[in-house]
Design brief:
The chain has a domain at 65-105. It is built from 2 helices and 3 strands, in the order αβββα. It has helices spanning 44-62, 94-101, and strands at 66-71, 77-82, 88-92. It has a 3-stranded antiparallel sheet with strand order 1-2-3. Strand 2 and strand 3 (88-92) form a beta hairpin. The termini are far apart.
Length: 113
């Protein structure tokens, strides 16, 4: 390109081999730089969730049913409903137990167990 000369305010072009520097955008969910203090008591919604879970556990106890948690060899959690003699009534998925303890599901026992 003979005859073309850069002007005083033009910038030199980057060569294809020149490294490009990108600045990272700030993280949206970054942890605060300073830890927040631990509250003296859990928030009310945690107390409410614990009350619901306790009610479900009382209902199971009234039916002489226990929950048994066990770590399986594949590192998953196995949860079993046991009768008063320790016999397995049913094995249930962890998500179903979590729903029941949150009050949005049921661990109802029918004639099949």
């Amino acid at each position: 390109m003979e005859g073309i000369r850069p002007t005083a305010d033009s910038k030199p072009a980057l060569s294809p081999a020149a490294p490009r520097v990108q600045t990272a955008a700030p993280a949206r969910n970054a942890w605060p730089a300073v830890p927040t203090p631990i509250p003296p008591s859990p928030p009310p919604e945690v107390h409410e969730a614990l009350d619901v879970a306790a009610q479900v556990l009382r209902q199971l106890e009234a039916q002489e049913i226990d929950l048994h948690f066990e770590m399986a060899s594949d590192h998953t959690v196995r949860i079993q409903l046991l009768d008063h003699d320790g016999r397995v009534i049913r094995e249930i998925p962890a998500s179903k137990v979590a729903d029941a303890l949150a009050g949005s599901g049921s661990l109802a026992i029918d004639e099949r167990g």
